[in-house]
C-alpha cells in the first residue's frame, strides 16, 4: 500500500514521471544495473534485505547519478543525520501528509536537498560523516563497494580500475578513517549503516 501511495504521489508531483515499484534492495539493484540512471529513487529503510543504510550504499554504488530519497517511518535525528552524511538527496517521513510529500519531491527534483529540521546531531554520526568527507570521489566509490561486501577483484572489475589501484585506494581509506583493515572500516561506518553482521 505504501509503495502504491508513493508511486501515485511521485507521478502527481513530478511531471512526466513513470514509476517502477520493487520490494527489496536486491530487486532495486537489479533494476539499477540495467539502466543508466533513474530520475529519482525513493528508498524505504524497512526492506527485508536492508540493514541500516546498506540499501542506500548499494544503490549509490549501482546508480551514482540517481538522487536517492529516504522515505521512512523512522524519524529520529540520528536517522536524518545518517541519511544526509551518506549523500541522500532527501529524507521524507512517512507521517507527512501526501501534499507535503509531493512538495518535497518537487524540491528534490529541482536539485534542492530536503531534510527535516533535526535535533542535536549524534557525535558518532558527525565523526563518521567527517571520515567520509575526507575521502576523494574515487575512494568514496571504493568504500561504497566495500560496504556492499565486494572483494578487491570485484571492485576493480565493477569500477574499471586495476586491483593495484583498488588496494592503493583501500590503504588511503584505512589511513583517513584511522583503521587498519576492511572489518574495522565497516565498523567505523556502523553509526551510519547499522550493525555489521558477524
TrEMBL record:
GO terms for biological process: phosphorelay signal transduction system; regulation of DNA-templated transcription. Keywords: DNA-binding, Phosphoprotein. It comes from the Bacteria. GO terms for molecular function: DNA binding. Residues 1-109 form the Response regulatory domain. Residues 128-193 form the HTH luxR-type domain. The keyword Phosphoprotein applies. The modification 4-aspartylphosphate is found at residue 44. SMART domains: HTH_LUXR, REC. Gene3D superfamilies: 3.40.50.2300, Winged helix-like DNA-binding domain superfamily/Winged helix DNA-binding domain (1.10.10.10). This is DNA-binding response regulator. It comes from Sphingomonas metalli.
Amino acid at each position: 500500500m505504501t509503495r502504491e501511495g508513493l508511486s501515485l504521489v511521485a507521478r502527481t508531483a513530478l511531471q512526466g514521471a513513470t514509476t517502477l515499484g520493487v520490494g527489496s534492495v536486491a530487486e532495486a539493484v537489479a533494476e539499477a544495473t540495467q539502466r543508466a540512471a533513474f530520475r529519482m529513487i525513493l528508498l524505504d529503510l524497512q526492506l527485508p534485505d536492508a540493514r541500516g543504510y546498506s540499501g542506500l550504499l548499494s544503490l549509490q554504488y549501482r546508480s551514482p547519478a540517481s538522487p536517492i530519497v529516504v522515505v521512512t517511518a523512522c524519524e529520529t535525528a540520528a536517522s536524518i543525520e545518517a541519511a544526509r552524511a551518506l549523500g541522500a538527496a532527501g529524507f521524507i517521513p512517512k507521517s507527512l501528509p501526501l501534499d507535503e510529500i509531493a512538495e518535497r519531491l518537487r524540491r528534490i527534483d529541482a536539485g534542492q536537498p530536503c531534510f527535516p529540521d533535526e535535533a542535536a546531531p549524534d557525535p558518532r554520526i558527525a565523526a563518521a560523516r567527517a571520515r567520509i568527507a575526507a575521502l576523494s570521489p574515487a575512494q568514496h566509490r571504493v568504500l561504497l563497494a566495500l560496504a556492499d561486501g565486494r572483494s578487491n577483484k570485484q571492485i576493480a572489475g565493477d569500477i574499471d580500475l586495476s586491483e593495484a589501484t583498488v588496494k592503493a585506494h583501500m590503504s588511503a581509506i584505512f589511513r583517513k578513517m584511522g583503521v587498519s583493515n576492511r572489518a574495522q572500516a565497516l565498523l567505523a561506518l556502523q553509526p551510519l549503516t547499522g550493525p555489521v553482521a558477524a
